[in-house]
Amino acid sequence: SDVVPEHLALLDAPDIDSVVDANRELAQHLLDAADLWIFVTTAARYADAVPWDFLQMASRRGVGIGLVLNRVPAGAVDEVRAHLASMLRAQGLGQAPLFVLEEQVLDADGRIPVGAVAPLRGWLEGLATDQEERAALVRQSLRGAVDDVAARVEGVAGAVEDQERAADELAEVATRAFDRARDQLRDDVRDGTVMRGEVLARWQDMVGTGELLRELQSRIGRWRDRIAASVTGRPRNVERFQGAVETGIEALVRERVTEANEQVVLRWRATAAGAALLDDVAPGSADDLRRPPADLGERISRLVRDWQGGLLDLLREEGAGKRTTAKVLSYGLNGAALVLMVAVFAQTGGLTGAEVAIAGGSTAVGSTLLEALLGDQAVRRLAERARADLDRRAGELLAGEAARFTSIVDRARPDGDAAADLRARATELRRGLGR
């Protein structure tokens, strides 16, 4: 159009509050590209929220702004102008030119009379013809846009740091829960929790019938009992006791793992980040953290079997190089290991006094015989080493369960240098502006 001065381009953007998504997106692109924004609103809608969101963004970016308040009822200009001006000052836009147009009678072409828009036209022509002012406006818009990008980059860096903190907190929740489970399991082992119920009954049977003494004293007697058991089809009390101990330990470890798993899931559910991680996997899949893994029981059983095998190794090691070696072997490692298992689950590691009561034995014959073979201090030392070995094995299993949670967190965690790199880039942008 010939009426538009050189060096000036006027782009009529779609409504920023259009019901059509494409219109709003186009308006946003045009606003991002413009050096000057002219907001046209009416006396009925100038306080709407959507335009002010854009005006606040323009203020942050330092974009040149002019406002046209159209269709103001006659006689209300001063009142409406004063209110709008106060809103502009509150948003840091008090210097923006404000053009107020009362309701107009349109001309023959259906347009607003030229005289009514003369102040706005004069302002735009002034910008177009004043090269220095026009260049200043462009520089201001460019600097504001780059500075706004830098600020948004720093905002992203802050969000990354929030993610890092959330990841640390979620990982800590998991680690603490399973560390606490290990502490509780350690207490369970020492306070005689295992030596209750079925385990206690089988120990009483084994001691009361003298089967323990035979297991310790005579290989011939042990073979006789095994032959009898094979004929009658009934397992010996020794086997029942050993099976009960295995079951008791397995149940205890599973209980602690399950409790820790539930605690972590509950705590994660209370946070948006944790809930998102839990819901990001398909139920029943290998990464499903809502319940312990399907192979947990098998791994716990293997842990207990390996630990029991370790008891035999401890007994062999204790007797190595001593005169008692042959005697221990002749009495039978299995029987000695049974007594050692009971010692592990007593408070001090020996089977005397209160510990015998915990174990439920009517006599301390097994412990007395084992102490006679190896010595009182050796029995206590063996029990402590066996207890520590069980704690180590359980700790490794629990650490593996905690890792199921922490590995999911680590996969979602931002790169370690992401936040610092973003802040460095924001600084570089501002340095390019001479700031």
Describe the 3D structure.
The structure is a single chain. Helix content is 68%, strand content 5%. It is built from 17 helices and three strands. Helix 9 crosses helix 11, helix 11 crosses helix 12 and helix 11 packs across helix 13. About 11% of the residues have low confidence.
Q: Which key features would you list for this structure?
A:
single chain, 435 residues, mainly alpha, 17 helices, 3 strands
What general outline do the C-alpha atoms trace?
rod-shaped
Helix content: 55-70%
Strand element count: 3
Poorly predicted residue ranges? 217-235, 324-332, 347-366
Q: What's the short story on this structure?
A:
By secondary structure, this protein is mainly alpha-helical. It is built from 17 helices and 3 strands.
